[in-house]
Amino acid sequence: MNMMHKAVVNLRKLWINEPVFSFTIDVDWASEDAIKFCYRLFEKYQIPVTFFLTHSSKFLTEKIEKGKIGAGIHPNFIKGSNHGNSIEEVINYSMKLLPKVECFRCHRYYDVNDVTEAFYNLGIRYDSNLCTFLDKVNPFVHRSGIIRFPVYFEDGAYLLHKQNLLFNEVKTELFSSSGLMVINVHPMHLVMNTPNFQYSRTVKDSLSRQKWNSLNYNDFYGLNFKGLGIRDYIINLLDFVKENQFKTYTLHELYKRVGRANV
User: Fold this and answer.
1) What DSSP character marks residue 111?
2) C-alpha triplet 196, 200, 202: angle, nearest 5°
């Protein structure tokens, strides 16, 4: 076992006896007001978060420069992407968003060796480009040399699989046992309080790309689902984490521990 593998194994001591959380947000072309809403929700709970950027955001740039949030890039390699028409074009676009970036998560978790190896050669050393369905998979060393932090819970996947939105009925089973849980949410799911996967899809398909990218607080009132939705669930999760004083880290903070262990 080489030094990097040993460092990743040592990192697991952080959560061997308790739940540990890392909250992340895929921006997914959300408007500035949607991003602000999402940021302020986590700020209220004083929980550190990592944003994965699909586009330039003045608000997030200011927070990144002030060290208020963790940040990575969220490149879109899917056909028809506005990031570019080739792997090289998409990578160039994404790297310009955050020239000193250290991590990435691809849109829809797109994953081929050409991408991971190119990012590693550009200096990226960790990612979160794998989504499980409520399965605690420990960080591991990818074939490229990148440290991968798999997602445990994603709001979209949870809705897609029609899971229980009554948090109190599932909190013990899903969030109380020891292990690292990388949580991934999306600003538009939060502002709309999406109750099911089709709800957000229907809203997005009814709007132009320009309108979707510029939705404001007034628009959210009309789009907001009034019953039980994923925002209610995430707020309950945040309450649960704070009430139990569970440890929370950005992905960068976790990766730094790998680096220290590898010295």
Assistant:
1) -
2) 110
DSSP-assigned letters across all residues of 198-212: HHHHHHHHTS-HHHH
- List, as one string, the DSSP characters of 126-175: EE---B-SS--PPPEE-TTS-EE--BSEEHHHHHHTT----HHHHHHHHH
Model's pTM, two decimal places? 0.96
State both tokens at 241: 């984490």
Distance CA 248, CA 61 (A): 22
User: What phi and psi values does residue 179 have, to the nearest 5 degrees?
Assistant: 135, 160
Tell whether the torsion through CA atoms of 154, 160, 163 and 167 is positive or negative: positive
CB-based contacts of 78, cutoff 8 Å, min separation 6: 107, 108, 110
Q: Is 39 in contact with 55 (CB distance < 8 Å)?
A: no
Angle between helices 230-243 and 32-45 (to 10 degrees): 30
Question: Which tokens hold the place of 253?
Answer: 């903070």
**How do residues 167-203 score in pLDDT, each as one tens digit?**
999 999 999 999 999 999 999 999 999 999 999 889 9
- Name residues whose C-beta falls within 8 Å of residue 32's C-beta, 6 or more positions apart in sequence: 57, 58, 59
In three-state secondary structure terms, 250 is coil
- DSSP-derived letter for residue 86 is S
Q: For the chain, how big is the Rg over CA atoms in Å?
A: 18
What DSSP element (H or E) covers 49? strand 49-53
- Torsion angle of C-alpha atoms 52, 54, 60, 66, degrees rounded to 10: 60
